[in-house]
Amino acid sequence: MFSTQYQMFPKATQVIMEEEGLEEDSDLCIDCSPISGSGPRVFKMLEKWVPKASHYFDKEHYFYAGHQITIQESIENFGAIVWPGALALCQYLESDQQDINLKDKKVIELGAGTGLVSIVASILGAFVTATDLPEVLENLEFNITKNTRGMSIHKPEVRKLTWGENLNQDFPKSTHHYDFIVATDVVYHHTALDLLLATIDYLCQPGTTLLWANKFRFSTDYDFLDRLSNIFNITQLAEFPESNVKLFKGTVREN
Questions:
Q1: Quick check: 79 and 132 in contact, CB under 8 A?
Q2: How open is the CA angle 43-179-27, to the nearest 5 degrees?
Q3: What are the start-end ranges of the H helices in 96-208?
Q4: What are the residues facing 71 on neighbouring strands?
Q5: C-beta pairs of 50-57 under 8 Å, 24+ apart in sequence
Q6: Which contiguous run of DSSP H or E holds residue 12?
């Protein structure tokens, strides 16, 4: 495996766009598209939250892939809240379906949390496996079932995955090959980064693409990016400056 230091991409010039007159079904790819090689595309985070009266303070409503999505959140753990990286990846997936075509692709999400990304991927036609810790699964399954019933081509599944544990038994490589690994805001100041990296490394096989969106807050986020570049060829696809979210694409390095 080649060991190369990741080099930061030059930041593309941000385009200031008027928000007046934008509609739900307008072109969602609001960005500057730099000349090839000049850097990642810069997005303005669209307001996809849908104001709606609800009897439950813990429910939020979003609009992605032509559908209203209702997400039940919980303040009891980090995994039951929609974080900025999930919003960024959902916006990118629906706005750039030619570059990232999920139809009939096998997708596994690590740290799926509320399930928003898995729901959007499922609506866009993917075979989705949404994974997280046991204490998150009940709410995750509720959100995915509620929002994909009758709207997705393939029924998504929800599974327990504790990073670094029982991967050979629960996800044997001979029968579990994924076209995409997706993860959002899984990197922050916690003690499981080594296990996360090992899990990504294990699940990644030739032909697998990693899509990782993260709000960059700490030096550990950049350290993780450097370590990830030893496993993948890394390209920064997009940046959302207002929320400090960066989106990366990774493909396996060939020995």
A1: yes
A2: 25
A3: 116-123, 134-148, 167-170, 193-203
A4: 60
A5: none
A6: none
The secondary structure element, H or E, covering residue 218 is none
Cα angle for residues 123, 83, 141 (degrees, 5° grid): 50
Residue ranges, the chain, pLDDT below 70: 1-38, 44-58, 75-79, 255
- The closest alpha carbon to 204, from 180, 238, 239, 240, belongs to 180
Q: Note the pTM of the prediction, 2 decimals.
A: 0.80
What is the Cα–Cα distance from 196 to 187, expressed in whole angstroms? 9
- 68 φ/ψ angles, rounded to the nearest 5 degrees: -80, 135
Render the burial of 203-221: b for 16+ CB within 10 Å, e for the rest. bbeeebbbbbbbbbeeeeb
User: What backbone torsions phi and psi does residue 56 show, to the nearest 5 degrees?
Assistant: -115, 120
DSSP state of 21: T
In angstroms, rounded to a whole number, what is the distance separating the alpha carbons of residues 238 and 12? 9
Taking the CB of residue 155, how many other CB atoms lie within 10 A of it?
12
**Gap between the Cα atoms of 53 and 43, Å rounded:** 29
Please report the pLDDT score of residue 196 as a whole number. Answer: 97
